Structure formats: structure tokens, C-alpha cells
């Protein structure tokens, strides 16, 4: 009888342990992995809501408290439960689960939204901004989308990219009046793009190369609709060009085209949308400095722009070509001259300019003309170490990747 009681107690104990363990895992936070590229740095979001960065760090855009650049992914400490990320020219942006926004890096134009023009080497909260569901970074300005469909901007506004009716900068978020029912935002170097729920596209800011798509080269400091463009489901911005994705899977582009980034078969800039040649069944788009990339439904990737920032040869690809070594891709992002792609298995592949470590390839900072994976780094992983065991930039002399 006594032995039965003891066995029952032991059994009950293990059942309790299993229940507690199950509860712990069911309550653990997970999110969709993401990648984002700045001019010369890269930001990645793991499934567990942690943020990792690598590349140039002159303004603290890696968020590790230093100005030391890194050629391997480093963990941004004290930043948890992140659901979305973005990167500007030299700053980084993250949205927490609670809808708050956190920024770090270059703040000289007020793009951190911290009421000053000071840069920050660690993430800081953008005060007064809540219920945010999406963010985008221009070179010197930042854009945020609220759940209610309104758009908020801050940073450099000298050419109208804040959309506030003035060619004036702001160190705090300001509402873009007249923009409602917005479902996506994007930012170029000096212009901003917003997508409405009805599938129309609205632009403001610099228009030197026709990147606003309104048929002129006159800059605008209030939102202007891109006419005759409907059924849009995705938007992206390069430095001086704009890319949109239609519901039917086709891609349309406009703006600067000196490197063939519009994918229309020539190098002539456009002030109105033109259809990119040969692209069908596209589900996602991204744009960088002078390049454009598109992801097909079957997981293959197509690229147009300079051949020396990610593909073979010495010329430009004036129309999209397939990157044949890439398959099973689910996410893409473009930087100033580098590209990042996320595979379904969680591995991260990079190529293009690598002189600042933005490709994440250990001590090797050379550029790559073919995609290559970042070794021992997977965005599907969940960190199990104690906080004090998480490696930081101070350990960069080690050649393996955290």
C-alpha cells in the first residue's frame, strides 16, 4: 500500500512538471522572422522576438552600445517581444508587441523621434507613439503606420518627405493630414509612399527623378495620388525610385533608372508608372539604392540593376533576371548595395557590397556576386541562454557566429 502511494506521488509530480512546462511553452512569445537593410547595415528579427544586427556602426545603428562595426550578427540586448523591424540609411527601427516604437542609430535629423538631434547607440522609445503596426526608414526620416490607418512621420522634412505641408523637419512624430485607411508605408532616401486600403498609392517628398509618379519632377509636401494606378497590394522604395506590386502579380516602377532599376528594358527615368518586363506571379517586392528585387510565388527571386551588386558580369540588368541559385525564399530586402533573403528553413542568404560587414560573413568583409548563407545563424531559432550568456559585440574576435 505504501509503495502504491509513493508511486502515485511520483506520478503526480511528473504530471505537474509536464503541465508547467507545457504552460511555459504555450505562453512563450513567437513572431514571424524578418530581415531589413539599411545603407550599409542589416537588421534581422528572430522567431522569438529578438533583434540581431550586423554591418556598419558609425552612428550606433547596430544598437549594441558601441560604434564598433560587426561582420557577424550580434544580439540587441534589452529588446524583446519585437513584431516588426525596419532600417533607414543609418538608423534602425523596431515595433514591440505592445505597439510602441523603438529607434537607434543616427539621430542628427531627428529621425529617432526623441525630441533631439542626438544619435543613440541603444534602442530608445519614441514617446507618445502607440498602436503602431508598421514602420519604414528613409535615409534621414522615419514613417510609422497606426492601427487606425493614420500615418506619422518624423526626421528630415526639407523636401516635403514628412507630408506635413511644410518643407520642415520634426524631432517628434507628426500626423500626415489627409491620409486615412492606409495599410502600408515605404520610404526612399527623400520621399515617402503610402498604400490605401482601396489599392491606390499616395506619394510625397522629393521628385527630382520622378519618383512620386505624378508625371512631373516637382516635389510635393502633401500626399498626392499616383493616377491610373489601382489594385496595388505592395509598395517599396529605392533611393530615388518606387516599386509597386499589383494584385495580378505584375510589378510597376517609376523614378530614377540610371542603373536599370525599373526593369523596363532601358535606362530612361520615368515620371509615371511603367510595367517591369517579364515579371508574373510576384508576391513580394523590395528596392535598394539602385536595384530592385522581386519574389515569385514559387520561392524564386528576380533582380534588376547593377550586376556588380549581386549578380554576375560588369553591366546592368535592364530587365529582371532570375537568381538561379536561390530557391524556397520567403522574404527579401535591399540595402544601399547589398541584398538579404530569408529561406523557408530560417537561413539567411546575403550578397552584394560587403565592405562594412553588412553581409554577416564572419571576418570576411569582401563583396559577393553570388548569394551565400550566414553560417550558424537561423531566424527560426529560439534563444534559450540566460541573459548574461548572450554574446555581444565585445566578443567579435571569435570567428564563429552566435
Automatic annotation (TrEMBL):
Record key words, sorted: Membrane, Repeat, Transmembrane, Transmembrane helix
Segments forming domain RCC1-like: 33-313
Coiled coil feature spans: none
PROSITE patterns (alphabetical): RCC1_2, RCC1_3
Entries under InterPro entries matching the protein: RCC1-like_dom, RCC1/BLIP-II, Reg_chr_condens, Signaling_Regulatory_Domain
Membrane-traversing stretches: 5-25
Pfam families: RCC1_2, WD40_RLD
Domain of life, per lineage: Bacteria
PANTHER family with a match to the protein in the record: BTK-BINDING PROTEIN-RELATED (PTHR22872)
Protein name: Regulator of chromosome condensation (RCC1) repeat protein
Organism, scientific name: candidate division TA06 bacterium ADurb.Bin131
Amino acid at each position: 500500500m505504501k509503495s502504491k502511494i509513493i508511486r502515485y506521488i511520483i506520478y503526480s509530480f511528473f504530471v505537474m512538471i509536464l503541465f508547467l512546462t507545457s504552460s511555459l511553452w504555450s505562453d512563450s512569445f513567437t513572431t514571424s522572422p524578418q530581415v531589413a537593410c539599411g545603407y550599409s547595415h542589416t537588421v534581422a528579427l528572430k522567431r522569438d522576438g529578438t533583434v540581431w544586427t550586423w554591418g556598419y556602426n558609425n552612428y550606433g545603428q547596430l544598437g549594441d552600445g558601441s560604434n564598433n562595426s560587426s561582420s557577424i550578427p550580434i544580439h540587441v540586448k534589452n529588446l524583446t517581444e519585437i513584431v516588426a523591424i525596419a532600417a533607414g540609411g543609418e538608423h534602425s527601427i523596431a515595433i514591440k508587441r505592445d505597439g510602441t516604437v523603438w529607434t537607434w542609430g543616427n539621430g542628427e535629423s531627428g529621425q529617432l523621434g526623441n525630441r533631439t538631434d542626438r544619435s543613440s547607440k541603444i534602442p530608445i522609445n519614441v514617446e507618445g507613439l502607440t498602436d503602431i503596426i508598421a514602420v519604414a526608414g528613409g535615409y534621414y526620416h522615419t514613417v510609422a503606420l497606426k492601427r487606425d490607418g493614420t500615418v506619422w512621420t518624423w526626421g528630415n522634412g526639407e523636401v516635403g518627405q514628412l507630408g506635413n505641408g511644410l518643407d520642415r523637419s520634426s524631432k517628434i512624430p507628426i500626423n500626415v493630414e489627409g491620409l486615412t485607411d492606409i495599410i502600408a508605408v515605404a520610404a526612399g532616401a527623400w520621399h515617402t509612399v503610402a498604400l490605401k486600403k482601396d489599392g491606390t498609392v499616395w506619394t510625397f517628398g522629393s521628385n527630382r527623378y520622378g519618383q512620386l509618379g505624378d508625371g512631373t519632377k516637382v516635389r510635393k509636401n502633401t500626399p498626392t495620388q499616383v493616377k491610373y494606378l489601382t489594385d496595388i497590394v505592395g509598395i517599396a522604395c529605392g533611393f530615388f525610385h518606387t516599386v509597386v506590386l499589383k494584385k495580378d502579380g505584375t510589378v510597376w516602377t517609376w523614378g530614377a533608372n540610371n542603373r536599370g532599376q525599373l526593369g523596363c528594358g532601358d535606362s530612361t527615368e520615368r515620371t509615371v508608372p511603367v510595367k517591369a518586363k517579364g515579371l508574373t506571379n510576384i508576391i513580394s517586392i523590395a528596392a535598394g539604392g539602385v536595384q530592385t528585387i522581386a519574389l515569385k510565388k514559387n520561392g524564386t527571386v528576380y533582380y534588376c540593376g547593377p550586376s556588380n551588386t549581386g549578380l554576375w558580369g560588369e553591366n546592368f540588368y535592364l530587365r529582371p533576371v532570375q537568381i538561379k541559385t536561390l530557391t524556397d525564399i520567403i522574404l527579401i530586402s535591399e540595402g544601399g548595395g547589398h541584398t538579404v533573403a530569408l529561406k523557408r528553413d530560417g537561413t539567411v542568404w546575403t550578397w552584394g557590397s560587403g565592405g562594412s560587414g553588412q553581409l554577416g560573413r564572419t571576418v570576411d568583409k569582401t563583396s559577393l556576386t553570388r548569394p551565400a548563407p550566414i553560417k550558424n545563424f537561423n531566424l527560426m531559432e529560439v534563444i534559450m541562454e540566460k541573459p548574461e550568456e548572450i554574446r555581444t559585440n565585445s566578443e567579435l574576435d571569435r570567428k564563429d557566429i552566435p
